[in-house]
Amino acid sequence: MQTKNLALIVLLGLVVMLGFWGCSGYNRIVTADQDIKGKWSTVEAQFQRKKNLYENVVSTIKGSAKNEDTTLIKIVQMRSKIPNLDPNNPQTINDANKQLAQMKQTILNINVEAYPTLQTTQAFRDFQAQIEGTENRVTVAIRDWSDAVQNYNVLVVRFPGRILASLFGYHEKPFFKSDEGAKDTKVDFGS
User: Fold this and answer.
1) At residue 86, what are phi and psi to the nearest 5 degrees?
2) CA of 79: how far to CAs of 52, 55, 72, in Å?
3) Mean per-residue pLDDT, 140-159
């Protein structure tokens, strides 16, 4: 009878330990997943800030370039093609960056080629400084998000967390990947 009770106590102890391990592991995975979502929200906020800055420069150009409706239409059309960001598809960051880079290049070309007075407007100079700061903020936000993705992926790929992750439907998340030619990007001022 005593060995039966001892076996039951040991079995109950193992079940309790497994329960604590499971709860603890599950909570770590959920916390890491929420951290990714929070960091992604920061990435989206920085992209929204970047998009808003471009919208503000359109207003500046309108004030300085009254007769260039086609240029403004082109910029507005480019702005409308900026995709929504999707945390499960980091490629949307690349797509948004491409559209914003094209928009920036168009604006810079306007500045250099057609509207030298734009350089003297305070609003345009402010825009140039703000866009540089925003580019840095986007870079930091993406780096922080990528770090959170890495921490999460380690939890859901490494044993024994992999068992819990698959049990509760958590899977490895994709990292941000820049376009192949992104490192070779350069600004052309029409010289």
Assistant:
1) -130, 115
2) 10, 8, 10
3) 87
